[in-house]
Model the fold of this input.
Amino acid sequence: MTRPTILLLLAAACGAAEPPVRLADLQGPRLETPVPRPGFVLQNLDGTPFHFRDQTRGRLTFLFFGYINCPDVCPLHMANLAGAIRALPAPQRSAVQVVFVTTDPERDTPEKLREWLARFDPGFLALTGSPVALETAQRALAMPPAWKEGELPGGRGYALAHSTQLWAFSPDDSAHAVYPWGVTRETLSHDLPILLLVRPSR
Done:
């Protein structure tokens, strides 16, 4: 068990003050300037609006833009993140939200999104929206919108080029780290207990 996990459990069990957060202990790439939790609005799979900032406020939230026909980046990010979250104690698992935003609403129907995400964790949330709304959401984080890149092998249709960052918005409603394609489950497992302790300044 890592030192950050032990500190988190001791604080929760004993009612002690939370240990000081050391962002320098993060293994993932740290942002020099924290990025505020963005305020875009998309849709739940039942068609109701989802206000990202308001409905994830104060919670450790991982945000990723991708599509279910992605051959590599998207499934690996989701698998590694799901594995890292499963390794947490139950109280900490329930404090983490994962939001997957489709960049391919034409093919990623609500039924397909539910089935695909359930392979990793049924608690992962999927969002969709119009092309304009999805572009607005990506640009809110200074990310280029996804674009059609070419055909996938095996007659599986077109491929999409998309940003591969996995954003981690801490309970203080800012991102202090963003994880690139290739981040390992071990790195995420190490950083999760630290990110859970990042609280708003009093």
Summary: The two ends are 30 Å apart (CA to CA). The chain has one domain: 3-15+34-149+157-196. The beta strands are 30-36, 41-43, 49-51, 60-66, 96-102, 125-127, 147-151, 158-161, 166-169, 174-179. Helices lie at 3-14, 52-56, 73-86, 90-93, 110-118, 131-139, 185-196.
